[in-house]
Design goal:
This protein is mainly alpha-helical. It is built from five helices and no strands.
């Protein structure tokens, strides 16, 4: 049940990610240039995902086990990848363009965003005052 409830939190990531993309394209590129906008955007989105998880997970799941937190993280990870590919294809992106986001040498920190999505529930659960320590 905790994993199902956690989908509410994952849904909160979607508008934040969209706003982050808009911020990158319409502000960061102009202020710091294209080379730096993509990695800064990745750091911002990762931070937002962690903060949303930190603020909401303890309210939705009371004392989750480490196993439940890993389940939540894996669920969010798969949903995020599926959403990214589905929205990319719907927007006309090719498979090659979508896969390019997984290459950190381009400055894209999408892998960091995915790692944050996976690990945030586990890390938050280990913080003092949040959940059990397993």
């Amino acid at each position: 049940m905790n994993v199902a409830k956690s989908l509410i939190i994952w849904i909160c990531f979607i508008p934040v990610a969209i706003l982050n993309g808009g911020l990158r394209e319409y502000a960061l590129v102009k202020v710091i240039g294209e080379k730096w906008a993509l990695p800064v955007s990745g750091l911002l989105l990762s931070s937002c995902i962690f903060l949303i998880t930190w603020g909401l997970l303890p309210r939705i799941t009371k004392s989750p086990t480490a196993k439940v937190c890993w389940g939540i993280g894996l669920c969010w990870l798969f949903l995020t990848i599926a959403f990214e590919f589905a929205s990319g294809w719907a927007g006309g992106s090719s498979f090659a363009e979508l896969i390019a986001a997984y290459d950190p040498s381009t400055g894209n920190l999408w892998l960091l965003v995915l790692a944050t999505t996976l690990l945030s529930p586990v890390i938050i659960n280990k913080l003092p005052g949040h959940g059990k320590r397993h």
